[in-house]
């Protein structure tokens, strides 16, 4: 993997470990020669992951919609800042630039980005690994919901397993580097219902 997109919050949240782990993610990517692609802001966990990579000598590409420049405050120290017109264009560009995705703690935006990437993978639009860094159990409830979706027949188990999960960035990167996308499509066979 040459580049990984990281989705995360533009705030720090309530636990200091979120910021510490965001910095560690950026640093780890840089040390492994993996470029960071992220949302382009210098605030919150977004700024922390970028600074972690930059301070370790890594390359960082930010993708920021013009209308968020004043709200999220563009990071001025990046290797490259790509300005786009919409959130849809942002996600498309971030997907185009990366070989895999990691979600750190975040809110609606982070979840929306994560699930769009998962949906695209489920539909066979890409075969990239998609992962969650489950810091302090932040995503435990979401992981439980995905299990419920699978148990209730609304999500295939093979698609559930597309989402890689760990509380360790090193383990997560190992999983991502060894990921093979499923060959089964999204559509549920009516004959099996």
From TrEMBL:
What's the Enzyme Commission number for this chain?
Answer: 3.2.2.n1
Q: Does the keyword field hold Amino-acid biosynthesis? A: no
Q: Does the keyword Acetylation apply?
A: no
Entry-linked InterPro entries: LOG, LOG_fam
Record's keyword terms, sorted: Cytokinin biosynthesis, Hydrolase
Q: Which reaction does it catalyse?
A: AMP + H2O = D-ribose 5-phosphate + adenine
Q: Which family does it belong to?
A: Belongs to the LOG family.
Query: What protein name applies here?
Result: Cytokinin riboside 5'-monophosphate phosphoribohydrolase
């Amino acid at each position: 993997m040459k580049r990984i997109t990281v989705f995360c919050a533009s705030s720090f949240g309530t636990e200091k470990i979120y910021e510490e782990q965001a910095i560690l993610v950026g640093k780890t990517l840089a040390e492994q020669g993996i470029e960071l692609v992220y949302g382009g802001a210098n605030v919150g966990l977004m700024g922390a992951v970028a600074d972690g990579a930059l301070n370790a000598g890594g390359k960082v590409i930010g993708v920021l919609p013009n209308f968020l420049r004043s709200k999220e405050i563009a990071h001025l120290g990046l290797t490259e800042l790509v300005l786009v017109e919409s959130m849809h264009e942002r996600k498309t560009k971030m997907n185009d630039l990366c070989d895999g995705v990691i979600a750190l703690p975040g809110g609606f935006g982070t979840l929306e980005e994560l699930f769009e990437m998962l949906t695209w993978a489920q539909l066979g639009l890409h075969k990239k690994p998609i992962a969650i860094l489950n810091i302090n159990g932040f995503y435990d409830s979401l992981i439980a919901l995905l299990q419920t979706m699978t148990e209730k027949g609304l999500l295939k188990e093979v698609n559930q397993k597309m989402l890689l999960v760990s509380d360790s960035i090193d383990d997560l990167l190992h999983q991502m580097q060894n990921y093979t996308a499923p060959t089964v499509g999204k559509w549920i066979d009516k004959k099996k219902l």
